[in-house]
Design brief:
Blueprint: E1 2-7, E2 10-17, E3 29-35, H1 46-50, E4 60-64, H2 67-88, H3 104-119, H4 125-142, H5 152-169, H6 184-202, H7 221-229, H8 237-245, H9 250-259, H10 263-267, E5 274-279, E6 282-289, E7 292-293, E8 300-301, E9 311-315, H11 317-334, E10 345-347, E11 350-352, H12 355-373, H13 376-384, H14 392-402, H15 406-420, H16 424-431, H17 449-460, E12 472-475, E13 490-493, H18 543-546
Parallel strand pairs: 12-13
Antiparallel strand pairs: 1-2, 2-3, 3-4, 5-6, 6-9, 7-8, 10-11
Helix pairs in contact: 3-4, 4-6, 5-6, 9-15
């Protein structure tokens, strides 16, 4: 049977059959999925999509119980993969750009152990066992609903579906109507759903367009306030560094804190993802993010969380040297590992990156990092810096739930906006977020080596987890006539018995500039005063704007 399925703004040809050799298997039905060129209406060939030597159509096979099962549970992942390949090949226009969506059932399944590690302290042991059973049922009920489409209307319909399912499977079956009290088993799953959506939205960073509510309720003012003010968005640098130095997970904590990667993106890093560039300030290091770890397969996939996730992220030089040294040590003992996952481990004298080994490593990371971040020193510092205090117990519980691996990504985002000096466009790029206000091009795009090096220098002159701000160092008379990026300190090496003119462009009002050196005489030739403009567009307001001219009594 052949049919056309539309998904993500792209049409696909889907041919289903029941091969004789799979008759006795659990997935006897096979579907061949082929993307269709939106401009020509023809099936895309392997030569067009993958630059191979074949002119045969692209036929991605997938197996399931029947065509409906394939279309509902297996087709979206294959379609997302093909859509990303079409963007890279330049076969989709910018106006058709589609961001991958995330099935709530898959997200809930992968998040299960982290969910119970966060919340099980609130429940008795028997309650935890019951909640685990109800959670597994909830996972199946969430299948087919995407995180990005969870509007209040869909969320309400999901709550009602849970209630109807519970009423239909109860020992005493009853007809449940909307607005009635939830059946006992439904009440448990609704509570789990409420906590899960909160966690996926706040701790995992899913783009869920609503504030979750209890069944038949509205979001409380307390819930709304907590989502804004008690999110562990800025962990004190010295405490984070201490925790990092005191654990065997220092490399993992360091990468997540220094680059702001999602935990799935960290899992998808290969050793060849680490790159190095030479330039005016010496060697600089960066990461190429080109994939992530699959949700349930624990294997690498090139399907990112968003299209913007394909990016280059600078690293601190100190971290880059640590990672390069680790790669060299592994290659000395186990051969070439450049195409192997960084989250592998040594097993029986070999460096292994199979799904079982990777799963164990990632589970260890996602379990231990929250415990490290819940260090009493960090907790007390975060509590002390709270802007508001209204319910200490509730705020403490919420704070604990936020201290997951994703807290390191939020901390990195805070660093970008508060310390890095990056503009908004650069911030979006570094975080792997889509700037929906910008029309993006299709086809192969990316930064040049020169642009990447300037990005690395921008991090080099800022304070990070690994270093204080570095000065820019130049040799006078070389090809550099100006600094590549703004910096707070510059060191120049001058030839003997020479004269040089230095022009300093201050980027902040009220900044102070000083020049000093050994056996160097400095004289100021000229300084431009930055005066307030009269047209109202100056950075500093004219005194007439904020001067009190007259004081009157109310209703005088």
């Amino acid at each position: 049977m052949t049919k056309t399925v539309d998904y993500g703004g792209v049409s696909f040809r889907v041919r289903t059959a029941y091969p004789r050799g799979r008759k006795a298997s659990k997935a006897p039905c096979r579907a061949l999925i082929s993307p269709i060129n939106p401009e020509t209406g023809e099936v895309i060939t392997k030569r067009q999509l993958f630059a191979s030597e074949s002119d045969c159509p692209v036929d991605k096979p997938v197996y399931g119980a029947n065509p409906a099962d394939i279309e509902e549970h297996h087709f979206p992942a294959i379609a997302n993969e093909l859509i990303q390949a079409m963007y890279q090949a330049g076969l989709l226009a910018a106006g058709n750009r589609y961001e991958p969506t995330h099935d709530l059932g898959d997200a809930a399944e992968s998040y299960k152990e982290m969910f119970f590690s966060i919340h099980q302290q609130q429940w008795a042991e028997r309650t935890i066992d019951d909640y685990r059973r109800q959670y597994d049922i909830l996972v199946t009920e969430l299948r087919g609903t995407t995180a990005e489409s969870l509007t209040p209307e869909i969320y309400r319909a999901l709550q009602e579906r849970i209630c109807r399912n519970a009423a239909g499977t109860a020992r005493k079956k009853s007809d449940w109507v909307a607005g009635a009290e939830a059946p006992p088993s439904a009440a448990k799953r609704l509570n789990l759903l409420y906590l899960l959506i909160w966690d996926l939205k706040t701790t995992e960073g899913y783009n869920i367009p609503l504030v979750p509510t209890r069944y038949a309720g509205k979001p409380s003012r307390q819930d709304l306030l907590l989502s804004y003010i008690d999110s562990a968005r800025s962990i004190p640098r010295h405490l984070l560094k201490q925790v990092c130095d005191e654990t065997i997970l220092s490399g993992q904590v360091g990468i997540l804190a220094d680059t702001g990667l999602r935990i799935s993106e960290y899992g998808g890093l290969l050793f060849c993802s680490i790159a190095r560039l030479e330039g005016s300030q010496g060697a600089m290091y960066y990461l190429r993010v080109t994939g992530q770890l699959g949700v349930s397969s624990n294997t690498r996939t090139e399907i990112p969380k968003t299209t913007s996730s394909y990016r280059v992220v600078p690293m601190s030089v100190e971290l880059g040297e640590i990672l390069m040294q680790r790669q060299q040590e592994l290659e000395r003992d186990y051969g070439n590992v450049s195409l192997m996952l960084m989250c592998g481990s040594v097993q029986a004298g070999e460096y292994c990156t199979d799904a079982k080994t990777v799963s164990g490593t990632m589970n260890n990371i996602t379990e231990q990092i929250p415990e490290l971040l819940r260090d009493p020193r960090i907790l007390e510092a975060l509590k002390k810096n709270r802007p508001y205090r209204f319910d200490e117990v509730c705020q403490d519980n919420y704070l604990l739930s936020m201290l997951t691996c994703h807290a390191l990504r939020r901390n990195f985002c805070t660093w970008i906006y508060c310390e890095s000096g990056m503009d908004t466009k650069q911030a979006y790029q570094q975080m792997g977020h889509a700037d929906k206000s910008e029309q993006r091009r299709s086809g192969a795009i990316g930064a040049t080596p020169g642009e990447i090096y300037r990005m690395c220098i921008g991090k080099h002159v800022s304070r990070t987890l690994y270093h204080d701000p570095h000065p820019l160092r130049y040799q006078a008379g070389e090809k550099f006539s100006e600094t590549e990026v703004p910096a707070c300190a510059i060191e120049l090496t001058l030839p003997a018995n020479s004269k040089w003119q230095l022009i300093v462009a201050e980027t902040e009002p009220m900044a102070h500039t000083s020049c000093r050196g050994d056996n160097v005489s400095v004289s100021q030739k000229w300084q431009e005063d930055i005066r307030c403009r009269s047209d109202g567009y100056a950075l500093l307001a004219d005194p007439s704007v904020y001067t009190i001219r007259e004081k009157k009594k109310l209703f005088a």
